[in-house]
Amino acid sequence: MEGYMKGLLYIIYSTLFYLYSIFPINDNKTTFIMTHDSSVNGNIMCMYRKVKEKKENHVCKFITKHQLKPKNKFELLYQGLKFIFITPYYLATSKTIFLDNVFLPMAYIKFKSKVKVVQLWHGCNTLKKFGQLSNTGKIKELEKKANSRYTHVIVSSKKMINLHQEAFGVDEKIIYPLGLPRMDIFFDKKRIEEEKNKFYEEYQELKYKKIILYAPTFRDNNVKNLDANMNLSDIIDKLPLNYVIINKFHPFVSNNYTKINSERIIDMSNYKDLNRLLLVSDILISDYSSIVFDFALLNKPIIFYAYDKDKYEKTIRGFYYNYEDYIKTSFTTSKTELMDQIMTQSIYIDNEQFYNKYVDYKDSEASNRIYTILY
């Protein structure tokens, strides 16, 4: 029944899109589809600021995940009507469209030839499979059609071209290794200090703490009981008192996570700005998440806690590469080893070697490069 209703809504959506297509394309209008990363320093918002910086009077419209996931019945009605009846008009009349995720309604529509549809994605690079390679059945079919609408796919390096070509099923000619907008900040010392100060104004009690950021990747098969795999209380109790752990879980996980009652374990899964968390953190603990690429640019210790590597590789999503070859360092699967690595930082990634391999541009100009080829 749910699948039938979604299909019906997609048909209504596409019908309205084609009705609105009688209106001309507005060359001075851009729509930003932000259905994954709503942070102020995500790829979408970085490009939005660049567009407004260059074109102050440019018309910018947004389609966000909040429209797709209303909190109550009133919002469901309001956002639902707005999404169905208004957003097709945005798409039908915009010259440029940016996305940070797959937008399935695009499977049912086709744009005029002059429209530029730009996939920025929401991560940097990736080890785990994503896009068409991580889905099956009807969803995979819809993704394939939606992905075929792209005119530009932006990646961080030439090495990422083949990977994104497979994930999106697109011609490599439309893939541009220009760098990602969200990474500009990591090469801008002034902005780094500004963002850190903003964080400490909000969380003054953390200013002189040693911050460990725990940010595991999303596991398709387990949105609950993540704390059973990683008992943070056991770890923090054995660390010096100046250490704190900040959790940053995937949005699908955070609502089901069993919160730990501790002043030294802080859940910031709903904190809007991931980049800001990376900037203030001293150590990152992750596994297969693409944020390790961002953190590597800061030249800080990264500890790989891959407690379920074999299971993840065989039964969940799987990897593009051999995990050990990819991270170029050892990883731990036990809390005992994890504790030792936190204290000694004896085993962590060679940051420079890592990001040199997967990031072509070491500057804060990715947004400018993207803007230049589009406007």
From TrEMBL:
Keywords per UniProt: Cell membrane, Membrane, Teichoic acid biosynthesis, Transferase
Topology class, membrane: Peripheral membrane protein
Any one GO cellular component localisation term in the record: plasma membrane
Family annotation (Pfam families): Glyphos_transf
Protein name: CDP-glycerol--glycerophosphate glycerophosphotransferase
Organism: Clostridium botulinum
PANTHER family: TEICHOIC ACID GLYCEROL-PHOSPHATE PRIMASE, TEICHOIC ACID RIBITOL-PHOSPHATE POLYMERASE TARK
Family affiliation: Belongs to the CDP-glycerol glycerophosphotransferase family.
Main location as per UniProt: membrane
A molecular function (GO) term: CDP-glycerol glycerophosphotransferase activity
Record GO biological process: teichoic acid biosynthetic process
